[in-house]
Structure formats: structure tokens, C-alpha cells
Design goal:
Structural class of chain A: mainly alpha
Radius of gyration of chain A: 51 Å
Shape of chain B: globular
Strand order of the largest sheet of chain B: 3-6-9-1-10
Shape of chain A: flat
Number of domains of chain B: 2
Strand content of chain A: under 5%
Order of helices and strands of chain B: HHEHEEHEEEHEEEHEHEHHHEHHEHH
Oligomer: heterodimer
Number of strands of chain B: 13
Largest interface: A-B, 27 and 29 residues
Number of helices of chain B: 14
Number of strands of chain A: 0
Number of helices of chain A: 22
Distance between the termini of chain A: 98 Å
CATH superfamily of the largest domain in chain B: P-loop containing nucleotide triphosphate hydrolases
Distance between the termini of chain B: 37 Å
Helix content of chain A: 40-55%
Largest sheet of chain A: none
Structural class of chain B: alpha/beta
CATH architecture of the largest domain in chain B: 3-Layer(aba) Sandwich
Largest sheet of chain B: 5 strands, parallel
């Protein structure tokens, strides 16, 4: 059946007509994808809450009221994602799907091996050659079959909205935290550490907040120790209050547990902020109280304090040690060659440190034994090494004082062989021992033989074998064949044949 | 000639191409059982004007396949069994001293087996690089230069070489420059189990089937021109280029596997080869233009010997075919 050849313009028009619904569908999909794509909206959704949160923190530091009403927060949060959606939608609308791409999609759907898209391209040629015309004619025959059959909507999986949901949740959280951080609430950093729930409980009236602000300005609050210590001191006035510049180490040495949160913001700032501000480290501050105390008292307190410290260290991880946090460096950090530069610059050898070093030397023996787990003997109780001096003793026969049975010069020994040529090198004559009994022993006993009862076996015919004979390499002959063989050999014997 | 006549001529040419291709294929299949993809690829190279490297273990019928093609097409056929002691003069030809009618002597050039149309270079990797290099000029320039003499080789000229991938001792692997001259590298695999019976019957019955000549040199040349006339749409062209670029490490389209395991990617000659083979395949598939499916179908045979994997790939068991498969899955036909 021959199909009428049509001009390239007609073919092109038909192809464009075929591609039109596909193009519209592709463009609509593109717009929908641009609108619904959640991945690109996470950043705009988070942008305002993050900025607002940072601004609120800054305002809190400088004591500026920056609260915004909730009805202003919501539009400001949503405006950036909406702008983003609008821009993407406009961009998607501006992008046109080419007919050749739509026809390529149709080719793939209808398994036409690029016939339609190639024909569309060739139809735009000014002077198509024979093969191009043939390709267009070939495609024209398939246009009718393809017309009206739009590609099936490709099954898409559910769009991953999880980033958007996470972003929305994070934005809400940031806004909430920013609202909690406003100066009207008047929270201190320790309450922030405890979380927003505690912050809501700890709301104080404005007058109290002002009073407290006067006392605890940020620049004054920063070097302070753990505020929980302060709060506890307020609760229990009978107990001796620590000095102002007392470090958390000292507070902990009094048996107060600064808890896991003892690593508070102030403590962290004190641990690392010494070099930033160019001030002497808190290590020096903490040793002021140590100077006030007498060395004698310290020596008396030391075993108990050590016991307390070990008990506390057993309860807590070593990173949260109050001594490390409060003093800016650990016990060994000042002596370590890898100590931080600022601590090396500010190194002040106080009496307490000297005492500590002395104590270490005093406790060296017991500490060493404990540290090595008793694997090695105590070094101070060691005997001198064994005297292995093998010098010639000239045969005087005098035992050495250092002899301990491990060789070396000893008692008189007879010399043999080459060794006898060397004076003084003695060998034992013989080793007194028992003869080797050997690995086996044969003994003979005289026993009279005794008769034993056994089952008698009758020689009568027992008939055929009832049980299985098991595996046999050769099948047994049947009775008639056995008889045949028997008679054959008997006849041979009778005839005097070969035996 | 108006447009309709042009289209009819093109359709007739395409139909003739398919007929001749089918005839040669059917004639060769009288002796060669199975191995249809190998036969298709060899005929594709013949019609595209390229050379073929057949690689497979002994006994798979590589040599017999080439001989059968040489018998089915009426072209001068020669066979060279490469050995380590073979010299270039042995395949190109040399001047020999011959006696003239008057009793004198003169130097006369005697052509070697390379001067032919269809050359079977059997076990090409057994020859020394010196002899292998003698093929370079013949394969690329279609001429042979011996001394001051230059011989133009007769078209259609096609070298079909074989090599054994397992016996590498005493062989000289072809350098990349030599491998790049081959249009396709075809891996010959074992026949299917149902084909063994026919193989045994045809080869042990005492009467080998005779292969008649169903085409000629002139026809092959005409059909080569037909194949070259097949148009390539922009989409297929871009796809072929993307595949070639995608197999080059560090390129825009290269997947991670290529960046990690490929030491040397295919050259622009690979894109030319992809287009040529795709054109022949489009005609054999009954189409008048190249499609991306054609490019995809010939990609393995065209790119296999042009992708050089590095030591890490060899250690991890990643070969060129795996790399090409990764590129094919990574690079999709362009849609804007």
C-alpha cells in the first residue's frame, strides 16, 4: 500500500500538531515541578527565622528590645519562600519546550527510534536530500498512528517534602527561641542552657530584672563561675560562700557538684577566652584563693580532697572536670610541651603548684605501684642485679658473696675438655639424680589359665540366608548355575583334564 | 530530479542496501552457525569502510567467519598468519631479482599479502611491533610505501584481524595508535548450546557447504556511498559526542567510574566511527536517519578498544565494557 507523499511543510505541520499537546503537557509539568519542588524552598524558609534569631541574640547581648509581634513574624517568614516560588514559576513559564523535544518523548514512548524528531528536524531544512525526504515520508506514515496517543503520565514517586518540613520546623523553633531570648524575659545564660521550659518558669518582674542587670552586666558575668553555685549559695546562706573570684575548681573542692552543666557558658568562655581578651588567664585568678590558704591546711586537706576528687571523677567523664574548666588548663597541661601558648605565657608557679609537685614526688612510690597495677615490683625494694661476673677465680674455691645460684663464680668445679685449659672455669662433675624409669614398664605375673564357657555352634544346615548380604562386588551365582559349575569341574576331574 | 524522485531513489538505495546485506549474511550463515551479532558487526565494518578486530579464544570460528565473508563477497582475499619472526617486507612486498627474457636481471616488486581488498590478519598480536606498524599506513592511508614505490590499495579495503586474549606469552599487544585504526573491536563469545549440534554436523560431515559470491567490490563501494548519505539528526550527533566525551576522565559527562578507572578515553575518531557504524545500522534496521538507538547499539563495539583502563580498574576487575555500560547509563540522549 503506497501512501501519498506530502510536502515537507505538510509533514512539519502535522508533526507540530502532534507535538502541541505533548509540549503543553511538558510545560505544565515543568511549572508544576517549579511550584511544588520542596528542595529549593528550604533555604528561603529558614532565612528570616535564622536572621531574626541572630538579631535577637545580638539585641539580648546589648540589652535592646527587639521583639516583634507574631502577626509580623509570620508574613516575614513566608515572604521569601513565596518570592522564590513566584520567580521559579515565572522562569518555568518563560522556558518553552521545543517541538523536537516533545517529539523525542513521543518517539521514546511509541518506540519509533527518533523517526518523528528526525523528520521534524529535516522538515526545517531548506534543501533536504533524498534520505531526508524519505525519512520524512517514513515518519509521516507513523504520524497517523501516533496522533492522539499522548505519552502516559510517568509514574512519579511522592515528592520528597521532608526537607521542607524540616525547614518549617526549624524556622518555627528559631522563631520560638528568638521570642524567648528577648530582653523582656530577662533570662541568664544558665537558664538558656537548661532549655526554654525552665526559662518560662524563671520569668522575673521588670524591677527585679533591672536590679539583676545592675549586678550582672555581661562583662561582669562572663568570668563568673557556674551560676548554679551562686544559686545554691543563695539557697543555703549558712554555708560559707565562696569568694568572688573563686573558680569552679575551688567550689568543687568544697564538695559541690557543678553537675554536667558545670561546663557552663562562663566556664567555656573562661577556658578558651583568656587569650582573646588578652587578660591573664583564670588560672591566676583561681590561685588567688589558694594563696590565701596556708600550706599546712592544704596538706591536711589533701587526702580527703583527693578522695573526693577521685570519687567525682569516677562519676563524671574527665572532659567535664571542673579543675580543667575553671583553671584554663589541666593539671598536666602546664608541664606539657604541647600546652597552649597563652597558658605558657601566663604560667605562674604558685605555692599550690609547687606543693602539688612536691606531693607528687612524695607519693611517687605508692602512685607508681598503683599506676602500674602491681605488675612490676616496687623499685625501691629491688635487690641489686645478679653478679654474673665470670672472671677467673684462680681456683681459690671461695664462694662469692654475690653468688645466688644463677651461675658465675661458685664452688669448686671439675674442669673438662677445652674448658680445663681455662683456669677457673669449673664444671660440675655429675648431676645426682635417679635413673630414668622409662616410658613403658613390662611386668610378668604368674596366673593359672582358667577355662571359659563358650556357645556351641552346631554344624547342621541353617537354610538360606535371611538377612541382607550387604554390598558385594559380584552378584552370587544362582543355585542352578552353581550346580552347573560344580558339575563342570567334577567332569573335568573325572576326565583328568587340567586341574 | 524533484523531491519525490529523490526520496524514491533514496528508498531504493536503502532497500538495495538491506537486500545485499541480508544476502551476504545469509550466505555466510550457511557455514557459520550462530554468532549473529559478530557477523552483523563485521558486515557493518565492511559497509562502513572500516577495519575490524575480532577477539576470542581459539576455536570459535573467527578465521572461518572472515574467510566466509571473503568468499561471499567477490573481492581479492588474502590471509596473513602473523608470527614473531615476520618482517614488514613479508606482508607489504619487496623487490626481488628476476631474470629478464634477454638473459639479464632486474629488480621487480612483488606484492605482499597486504595488497588485497579483504585481508585476514590472523593472530595479529603475534607479530612484532615493527610488522604491526607496517599495517598502519595500509589501514589509514589505504596505501603501501616500500622504498620509493607507493602502491594504492584497491577499494574496498578492509583488514579483519583476529587475536587471542588468553595466550599472551610471546605476543606483542597492539599499541593504542594501532588499535585506534580499527573501527570496531568485536568480542567473539561461545555459541549457544543449541548451536553446537549444527556446528558439529556442518563441519564433520565431510562436505563443507559452498559459499557462493553474492556481491562484488563495486557493489560494496556503491553501498558504502549509500551508507555515507544517511543523514544524522542533531540529537543523535550530540548523543554520540556526549558518549565519547563521557568516556574521557575528567570531562563534563564522565561518571565517577570513568574518573576513577579510565586512564585514556576515546579520541574524536571514536565519534566518527560511532556515526559511520550508526548509519549502517540505521539502514539495516530499515530507517533513513540515524537514531540514538543506533548509537547506543554500536557503542560497545566502537568504544571498547578505545577506552584504556588503569591499574586500579584491572585490580578491581573493571574492564572497558563495564566502563562503557556505565557511560551509557549515565549519559542520556539530550533533551532541552
Amino acid at each position: 500500500m503506497t501512501v501519498e507523499r506530502r510536502s515537507s511543510h505538510r509533514v512539519r505541520a502535522d508533526l507540530q500538531e502532534l507535538a502541541a499537546p505533548v509540549t503543553a503537557e511538558l510545560e505544565a509539568r515543568r511549572v508544576r515541578a517549579a511550584t511544588a519542588a520542596p528542595n529549593g524552598l528550604a533555604a528561603p524558609l529558614l532565612a528570616f527565622p535564622a536572621i531574626y534569631f541572630l538579631l535577637t541574640c545580638a539585641c539580648w547581648l546589648f540589652d535592646v528590645d527587639s521583639r516583634l509581634p507574631w502577626f509580623a513574624l509570620l508574613p516575614l517568614t513566608l515572604i521569601l519562600p513565596l518570592i522564590r516560588i513566584f520567580l521559579r514559576r515565572a522562569s518555568a513559564r518563560a522556558q518553552r519546550v521545543r517541538d523536537v523535544d516533545a517529539l523525542a518523548l513521543l518517539d521514546a514512548e511509541l518506540q519509533l527510534a527518533d523517526r518523528l524528531s528526525a523528520a521534524h528536524e529535516f522538515s526545517g531544512e531548506e534543501a533536504p536530500d533524498g534520505f531526508m525526504l524519505a525519512a520524512m515520508h517514513d515518519a509521516d506514515q507513523r504520524v497517523r498512528a501516533a496522533r492522539g496517543r499522548l505519552p502516559a503520565d510517568q509514574a512519579r514517586g511522592p515528592q520528597r517534602a521532608s526537607p521542607l518540613w524540616f525547614a518549617a520546623a526549624a524556622a518555627s523553633l528559631l522563631l520560638y527561641m528568638a521570642a524567648q531570648f528577648t530582653p523582656a524575659v530577662g533570662l541568664s545564660a544558665d537558664v538558656v542552657d537548661a532549655g526554654p521550659v525552665h526559662a518560662a518558669v524563671d520569668v522575673a518582674p521588670r524591677d527585679d530584672r533591672d536590679d539583676r542587670d545592675e549586678v550582672t552586666r555581661p562583662e561582669q558575668r562572663r568570668p563568673q563561675p557556674d551560676p548554679r553555685v551562686r544559686r545554691r549559695a543563695q539557697q543555703d546562706p549558712g554555708e560559707s560562700a565562696p569568694s568572688e573570684d573563686e573558680s569552679p575548681t575551688d567550689a568543687r573542692r568544697r564538695g559541690r557538684n557543678p553537675m554536667g552543666s558545670g561546663r557552663s557558658a562562663e566556664a567555656r568562655t573562661a577556658a578558651g577566652g583568656g587569650s582573646e581578651r588578652g587578660q591573664p588567664s583564670n588560672q591566676a585568678q583561681s590561685t588567688k584563693g589558694g594563696k590565701a590558704r596556708k600550706p599546712k591546711e592544704k596538706k591536711q586537706d589533701k587526702p580527703r580532697e583527693d578522695g573526693d576528687e577521685r570519687a567525682e571523677e569516677a562519676k563524671k567523664p574527665p572532659q567535664e572536670s571542673g579543675s580543667t574548666q575553671g583553671r584554663g588548663s589541666g593539671k598536666g597541661s602546664s608541664k606539657s610541651p604541647t600546652a597552649s601558648p597563652w597558658s605558657a605565657k601566663d604560667e605562674v608557679v604558685t605555692d599550690e603548684e609547687e606543693d602539688l609537685e612536691e606531693d607528687e614526688e612524695v607519693d611517687d612510690e605508692s602512685d607508681e605501684s598503683k599506676a602500674r597495677g602491681g605488675v612490676q615490683p616496687n623499685l625501691r625494694q629491688r635487690k641489686p642485679p645478679v653478679n654474673r661476673d665470670l672472671q677467673i677465680s684462680m681456683g681459690n674455691g671461695q664462694p662469692s658473696d654475690d653468688a645466688n645460684g644463677r651461675g658465675g663464680p661458685g664452688g669448686p668445679k671439675k674442669q673438662r675438655g677445652v674448658a680445663q685449659l681455662v683456669l677457673g672455669v669449673t664444671f660440675p662433675d655429675h648431676v645426682s639424680a635417679k635413673p630414668n624409669p622409662g616410658i613403658s614398664k613390662i611386668t610378668q605375673e604368674r596366673i593359672e589359665p582358667q577355662a571359659q564357657q563358650g556357645d556351641l555352634i552346631s554344624g547342621e544346615d541353617r537354610g538360606e540366608r535371611a538377612a541382607s548380604m550387604g554390598h558385594m562386588t559380584r552378584s552370587p551365582l544362582s543355585p542352578w548355575m552353581q550346580e552347573l559349575v560344580r558339575s563342570f569341574y567334577l567332569s573335568l576331574r573325572e576326565e583328568g583334564g587340567p586341574q | 530530479m524533484n523531491a519525490n524522485e529523490q526520496a524514491e531513489v533514496a528508498e531504493r538505495d536503502a532497500q538495495r542496501f538491506r537486500d545485499v546485506h541480508e544476502k551476504i549474511k545469509r550466505e555466510v550463515q550457511r557455514f557459520i552457525v550462530g554468532q549473529e551479532p559478530v557477523l552483523d558487526a563485521a558486515l557493518t565494518a565492511l559497509f562502513a569502510g572500516g577495519h575490524v578486530m575480532l577477539e576470542g579464544v581459539p576455536g570459535l570460528g573467527k578465521t572461518m567467519l572472515v574467510k566466509s565473508i571473503g568468499q561471499a563477497v567477490d573481492v581479492p582475499f588474502s590471509r596473513i598468519q602473523f608470527t614473531p619472526d615476520m618482517m614488514p617486507a613479508d606482508i607489504q612486498g619487496t623487490n626481488v631479482l628476476v631474470e629478464t627474457e634477454g638473459g639479464g636481471h632486474e629488480l621487480q616488486f612483488q606484492e605482499g599479502p597486504l595488497v588485497s581488498s579483504l585481508v585476514l590478519a590472523d593472530e595479529i598480536n603475534r607479530a612484532t611491533p615493527r610488522t604491526q606498524s607496517a599495517l598502519l599506513e595500509a589501514m589509514q592511508e589505504r596505501q603501501i610505501s616500500v622504498g620509493r614505490k607507493t602502491i594504492k590499495l584497491q577499494e574496498p579495503y578492509c583488514v579483519m584481524a583476529t587475536q587471542n586474549p588468553v595466550e599472551q606469552e610471546g605476543t606483542y599487544p597492539l599499541p593504542e595508535a594501532q588499535l585506534d585504526r580499527f573501527l570496531m573491536k568485536i568480542v567473539v563469545g561461545y555459541p549457544k548450546i543449541e548451536e553446537y549440534e549444527a556446528i558439529v554436523d556442518r563441519t564433520t560431515a565431510g562436505q563443507e557447504p559452498e559459499i557462493s559470491k553474492v556481491s562484488s567490490s563495486a557493489e560494496i563501494l556503491e553501498l558504502r556511498a549509500v551508507a555515507l548519505a544517511v543523514p544524522v539528526p542533531q540529537r543523535a550527533k550530540r548523543y554520540a559526542i556526549s558518549l565519547v566525551v563521557g568516556a574521557q576522565p575528567g570531562s563534563e559527562f564522565a561518571p565517577a567510574l570513568v574518573n576513577e578507572f579510565v586512564a585514556l578515553g576515546p579520541s574524536p575518531r571514536a565519534a566518527q566511527s560511532l556515526m559511520l557504524c550508526s548509519k549502517v545500522r540505521a539502514l539495516t534496521e530499515g530507517r533513513f536517519a540515524v537514531s540514538t538507538d543506533d548509537v547506543k547499539a554500536v557503542a560497545h563495539d566502537v568504544l571498547r578498544h578505545r577506552v584504556l583502563v588503569n591499574f586500579h580498574a584491572q585490580a578491581d576487575g573493571v574492564n572497558a565494557d563495564r566502563v562503557i555500560a556505565e557511560v551509557l547509563s549515565h549519559v542520556q540522549p539530550p533533551v532541552e
